[in-house]
Design goal:
The protein is α/β, with parallel strands linked by helices and about 180 residues long. It contains four helices and twelve strands. The two termini are about 25 Å apart.
Length: about 180
């Protein structure tokens, strides 16, 4: 499975790079509108890296607490530190920017970065399993909404999955919102 996922990741990185060069279109507006239905809930976003689609406008517009993922160690679930525009940031694991300080929060809605997604609601991540472990743990405690955020060009016919992969509830792209229920 690792070889299959590795090849899929290579193709997905290339597709995302091409889509990134063409711009985000209305993706931020669609994401902000979708999240408006979840105001007051604790939201987790992410600090975009390389060619990831940028969720910062939607995070800044959210009416409620916003957190950013922090990698605590290899093969562990993510934790989330409170973030707001202008928060002092430092470099964390894998060069991801994280808040220098702040309260730890537990998200009810997660904006999830990805390399590829399919019509079943599965995503291909970077291979560390951080979001899968995190979603599994959070969902064991109660309802959590996982929202993939991507370019429409990142959709593939079928993401290779295994028993630990967690489905998304929705994907938002520059073409709109897709729900998986």
């Amino acid at each position: 499975m690792n070889d299959i996922k590795g090849l899929a990741r290579e193709a997905a990185f290339a597709a995302r790079k091409l889509a990134f060069a063409q711009g985000q279109g209305q993706a931020a507006q669609f994401l902000t509108g979708f999240l408006a239905d979840h105001r007051g809930k604790v939201l987790s976003g992410y600090m975009p890296m390389r060619t990831e689609i940028d969720p910062l406008p939607a995070m800044a517009a959210h009416r409620g607490t916003v957190g950013v993922p922090v990698i605590m160690g290899k093969a562990t679930p993510l934790r989330f530190r409170a973030w707001s525009p202008g928060s002092p940031m430092v470099e964390g694991a894998f060069k991801a920017m994280i808040p220098e300080a702040g309260d730890w929060v537990v998200p009810e809605v997660l904006i999830v970065p990805l390399l590829a997604f399919d019509a079943r609601g599965y995503r291909l991540g970077y291979g560390g399993g951080f979001y899968d472990r995190t979603l599994e743990g959070l969902r064991a405690k109660g309802p959590v909404l996982a929202v993939g955020y991507a370019f429409s060009a990142q959709e593939v016919a079928e993401v290779p999955i295994d028993a630990t992969d967690q489905r998304l509830d929705a994907v938002v792209t520059e073409q709109g919102v897709r729900l998986f229920r």
